[in-house]
Design goal:
The chain is α/β, with parallel strands linked by helices. It is built from 18 helices and 20 strands. It has a five-stranded parallel sheet, sandwiched between helices. It has a five-stranded mixed sheet with strand order 6-7-10-8-9, sandwiched between helices. The chain has a five-stranded parallel sheet with strand order 12-11-18-19-20, sandwiched between helices. β6, α6 (157-163) and β7 (166-170) form a beta-alpha-beta unit.
Length: 494
């Protein structure tokens, strides 16, 4: 039975501008065929089991021709796979989505189209430019400034000038001079305001505003690069007064987030809300240990305290109990100690309030808090990563407290963004890398290989993490408390 092809517009930037329907479809895909301009954090939504096909077209360089893309879509559908064709912006606005759907129709393949937020509207909005405004214009016209190979631009400049509306040119940076000259030759005033926006709707967005007679020289002087969009019209006069995006405190900073995939969203979302260009590059993942014989053995004894050192450890504990044939009732009467508020919150989701949280959120202080709180006869069950450090257990051992240290999950190094990270480092465009554990530091180093440790700032959640980063020669900043909000506050202090 043939599968279905769903065309999804990915929007102009990160996943915050991907539609809910687009995200839903992407997360259930069995195969994804995607373009160059789809952001890495959207690609992170693709299931690991899905087949990925990068057809990465860019200006004057099409590694996979359109005819071949059409054939790939048909082949995947004929293999019975739920296939997503993922495109930047909107599928039907200069995205050749119509051509692809015609080809699917010819070959008897069912399809669906999920519209996307087009850069023609989103990018001006992020630059403080409303494409329509009652006091300035009554129409907007969207034009491609990308010509077919070896052919001139097919733009009727006279007609565009006569409209008196806002003009938005997509894919036009290489033809900027020709477009401006075309408008001038058609009679547009040389003083008409215009703008070029590069990397629009992203944290590394850049904008140049000038008259059409001066725009080309201004853009060259600023060094703007593709992807870029051109806007022409009086509405460009509003770019400064209505600019809400570039004044955000972290705008212009590129920040890599290395947390595990299942916990990366909170930090990334907060950074984007402050204007940062966020690269999601999970450098570790947790794998639960399915052999829970040791845990089942230990649970036959009574423990006074259960100790958890991460949110991942909480879910691993619950699943390990289930695999061992128990549920949370087996822990009745035990008290819970956690390493910090994040772990406490994860535990509370299961209806259990933490009884002990140390003042400083690390293993050494958790161990000392237990020593200071426990009766010497009380016994402690530690459920944590197989790679857990020795600071916690050393404190308990020194105090001669009876404990069992049971691994419920292990941490492995993993990232799909190693090429992107190396590119950002090579270009000197990576400002900050956030680390929330020593293992994320090690995972990052493994991903990038040889690194210029002075090319970025390592923002670390605590002292143990910072010590690991310093061992690689990184420039380190440490959050005042081991929380996500404290890390962000540290960034805002600059």
């Amino acid at each position: 039975m043939a599968g279905k092809v769903i065309l999804v517009g990915a929007g102009p930037g990160g996943r915050d501008l991907l539609t809910l329907r687009g995200a839903e479809v992407l997360q259930s895909a069995e195969a994804v065929v995607y373009d160059r301009l789809v952001s890495p954090d959207i690609l992170e939504l693709i299931p690991q089991t899905a087949e990925r096909v990068n057809v990465g077209k860019e200006n004057n360089h099409h590694p996979v021709p359109q005819d071949q893309i059409n054939e790939i879509l048909v082949r995947l559908a004929q293999e019975g796979k739920q296939t997503v064709r993922l495109k930047g912006g909107d599928c039907y606005l200069f995205g050749r989505g119509g051509e692809e759907c015609e080809y699917l129709l010819e070959h008897g393949i069912s399809f669906e189209v999920v519209p996307g937020v087009t850069s023609a509207l989103a990018v001006p909005a992020y630059a403080g430019i409303p494409v329509t405004h009652r006091d300035y214009c009554s129409s907007v016209h969207i034009v491609t400034a990308h010509a077919r190979a070896d052919k001139p631009l097919d733009i009727h400049f006279d007609a565009l000038v006569q409209t008196g509306g806002t003009l938005v040119f997509l894919m036009g940076l290489s033809a900027l001079s020709e477009v401006m000259q075309g408008l001038l030759s058609a009679g547009m005033s040389p003083d008409m305001p215009a703008a070029v926006i590069s990397n629009g709707a992203r944290g590394n967005q850049k904008k140049v505003v000038a008259t059409i007679s001066m725009l080309y020289d201004a853009v060259r002087a600023a060094g703007l690069k593709s992807p870029a969009l051109i806007i022409v019209g009086r509405v460009c006069e509003l770019h400064s007064a209505l600019d809400w995006f570039t004044p955000l405190p972290l705008h212009g900073k590129t920040i890599a987030v290395t947390r595990p995939k299942e916990r990366i969203g909170t930090l990334s979302k907060k950074l984007r809300a402050l204007g940062a260009n966020v690269i999601e590059c999970p450098c570790i993942e947790t794998q639960e240990i399915e052999d829970t014989a040791l845990l089942k053995y230990e649970l036959t004894d009574h423990w006074d305290w259960v100790v958890l050192t991460s949110p991942a450890g909480v879910s691993a504990m619950v699943h390990a109990l289930q695999r061992a044939g128990y549920d949370l009732r087996v822990l009745y009467g035990m008290q819970f100690a956690v390493i910090g508020p994040g772990t406490a919150q994860a535990l509370a989701a299961y209806g259990i309030e933490a009884d002990l949280i140390p003042a400083v959120y690390d293993g050494a202080h958790l161990g000392q808090a237990l020593v200071d709180t426990l009766d010497p006869k009380e016994r402690v069950l530690i459920l944590r990563s197989a790679q857990g450090g020795s600071e916690l257990t050393a404190k308990l051992r020194e105090a001669e407290i009876t404990f069992a240290d049971v691994a419920t999950y292990e941490t492995v190094y993993r990232t799909n963004q190693d090429d992107l990270l190396r590119t950002e480092l090579a270009n000197g465009t990576l400002d900050v890398v956030t680390f929330t554990s020593a293992s994320t530091v090690r995972g990052f180093v493994e991903a990038v290989g040889d690194l210029d440790s002075q090319a970025f700032t390592a923002l670390c959640i605590g002292r143990q993490t910072a010590a690991q980063a310093q061992s690689y020669g990184m420039q380190v900043r440490i959050a005042k408390t081991a929380t996500i909000d404290s890390m962000i506050a540290c960034l805002l202090e600059e």
